[in-house]
């Protein structure tokens, strides 16, 4: 009886996969991972205004990192079991890994700002706001993968635009720093700016992974 019940569950799961149920589940899991990363970006942004004390943000970021690891692990687990995916599995792994890299760099930014950051973190507010906007656009793109695939490219381009904004802000602020006197806080800010630039680059890689997947799907 147990063998029969197990076989029936597998058949039911396979039928649900073929009807598109697994695709929506995967979309939900990718969104869940992005949501966790967004929480990390919002937390990092809150330190730029002093709304959250840096040591407290560092502790909270550790929790967020664990949530992100759990979200990615669940996505990987499901990908290994389902028959049908909305985009190629390899591209899904690549997308998930890049999103995870965004969180890793946000974690490092928060940790480093607490360890040796300058007294004023206001320079990070705009880049982090751009990161948050980019994550929102990436989630929007993911949501459209199944029901409106033709609109994914527009949302991906919006994500890339946000990433370009991070790079632009990084370069502008770096130019301002180098035009002034070289002080210890200048070096500290430069290191954190480099970390934020890395956040933007990893987010861009996530957008590229999704764009490549949708192009592959259209052929």
UniProtKB/TrEMBL annotation:
<dbReference type="Pfam" id="PF01865">
    <property type="entry name" value="PhoU_div"/>
</dbReference>
<dbReference type="InterPro" id="IPR038078">
    <property type="entry name" value="PhoU-like_sf"/>
</dbReference>
<comment type="similarity">
    <text>Belongs to the UPF0111 family.</text>
</comment>
<protein>
    <recommendedName>
        <fullName>DUF47 family protein</fullName>
    </recommendedName>
</protein>
<dbReference type="InterPro" id="IPR052912">
    <property type="entry name" value="UPF0111_domain"/>
</dbReference>
<dbReference type="InterPro" id="IPR018445">
    <property type="entry name" value="Put_Phosphate_transp_reg"/>
</dbReference>
């Amino acid at each position: 009886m147990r063998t029969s019940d197990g076989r029936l569950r597998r058949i039911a799961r396979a039928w649900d996969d073929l009807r598109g149920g697994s695709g929506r589940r995967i979309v939900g899991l990718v969104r869940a991972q992005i949501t966790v990363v967004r929480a990390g970006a919002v937390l990092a942004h809150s330190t730029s205004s002093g709304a959250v004390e840096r040591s407290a943000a560092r502790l909270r970021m550790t929790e967020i990192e664990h949530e992100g690891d759990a979200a990615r692990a669940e996505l990987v687990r499901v990908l290994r079991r389902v028959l049908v995916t909305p985009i190629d599995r390899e591209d899904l792994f690549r997308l998930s890994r890049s999103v995870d890299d965004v969180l890793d760099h946000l974690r490092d930014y928060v940790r480093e700002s607490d360890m040796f950051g300058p007294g004023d973190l206001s320079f990070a507010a705009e880049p982090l706001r751009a990161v948050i906007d980019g994550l929102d656009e990436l989630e929007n793109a993911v949501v459209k993968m199944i029901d409106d695939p033709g609109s994914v490219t527009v949302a991906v381009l919006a994500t890339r635009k946000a990433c370009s904004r991070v790079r632009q802000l990084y370069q502008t602020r770096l130019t301002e720093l180098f035009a002034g006197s070289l002080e210890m806080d200048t070096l500290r800010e430069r290191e954190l700016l480099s970390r934020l630039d890395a956040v933007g680059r990893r987010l861009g890689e996530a957008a590229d992974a999704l764009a490549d997947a949708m192009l592959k799907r259209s052929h």
